[in-house]
Amino acid sequence: PDSALIILNEIEKSELGSKKEQARYALLMSMALDKNYIDTTAFDVLQPAIDYYLKKGTPDEKLRTYYYQGVIFLNKRDRDNALNSFAKGIHIANESEDSLTIARLLVAQGGLYYEFYEFDNYIKLYLKAADIYNGLSLKDSELDCLLNALNGSILLENQHQCDSILNLLTKFNMLNLTQRHRIQRQQLSYALKFGSEDEIRDLIHIQEENISSQNDILNLALAYTQTGNYQKANSALDYVITSGQPYDTIRYLSISIPALEGTGCYKDALDKYKRFCHKQDSINLQKFEKQVKSIEEKHQIELKAQHYARENAKIIWRSIGGIIFLILVIIILYLLFYSNKAQKKLALERAKTTELENESLKAEKDKAIQQSKITELENERLKSEREKLSL
Fold this sequence. Notes:
Layout: H1 2-10, H2 19-35, H3 47-56, H4 59-75, H5 79-91, H6 99-115, H7 119-135, H8 139-155, H9 159-169, H10 177-194, H11 197-208, H12 214-226, H13 230-242, H14 249-262, H15 266-390
Helix pairs in contact: 1-2, 2-3, 3-4, 4-5, 4-6, 5-6, 6-7, 7-8, 8-9, 8-10, 10-11, 10-12, 11-12, 12-13, 12-14, 13-14, 14-15
């Protein structure tokens, strides 16, 4: 991608002639910027592709344009428009052969659903993406999608789905250290939901040696709480606050409540509980607003889909009518050709018959002439004989 970006930067935009050429350059440049981790929040680069491909492009070109349009909206933190762009891309995904872009689009859309707390859609999209990556033999990307889907299944406490995904994870070989640690973290999260205290204790020791994020510390705090080690749980939670790094506030509050109760700090626990309820209410309100907006957007997409379906039906019926008309014309031409051929054959047969009849008449005429000559000769002989008798 870095070499591609250098080449693209060397091209003079003023030398780009047609709108199709400008759109091609715009899409390639957007892809190169994204692959080089250059996040842009302006549409000046991609706009020629949006203007041209969304009207005249192939399904693959439309899909890629919608994807990078959504990426720019994400960079601008405009999640609603980003989700709308990804939804439009998914709408035409069945017509596209670009499986890799489809998978990336599913992952991007799934990440937005996670932010909107719509975990069912989040899981569904990541599992679809994992299936595509599996077909493309991109094992690292497949593993990442499965771990995200497992995380969502744990949040929804869907043990059957968790077991299914964990079974898929056992089939991965040649994992690097980071990937093994990620699987171990999810195993601890699974045990915290569905496992026994002994299973949690066994996994705590592994997690203590593999801390790489605030979420890992929160997992440890929850594990300490569930195994009755409240002092360690509160120490871990204090570290989250003092580290100054970003963390999941609502998860921190949900773990703090039982940890503080375990040490007898009921007043602090009540304060954390109030803050937790306030956050939860805000999330529920946000989910409701997003759900209402999502329903409206889906309705608009359905209306557009119905319009496209009607237009496609018209085109199909016109095509069928045209084909039937052409078939009828071909049949008529064939019948005319066959009729002319039959008439020519009949005329030839009649001509042959007439010719034969003429030949027969000619033969009879020749025979009559010959007979007349014989008769004439016979008359001359008789005349000669009469003359001899007369003499």
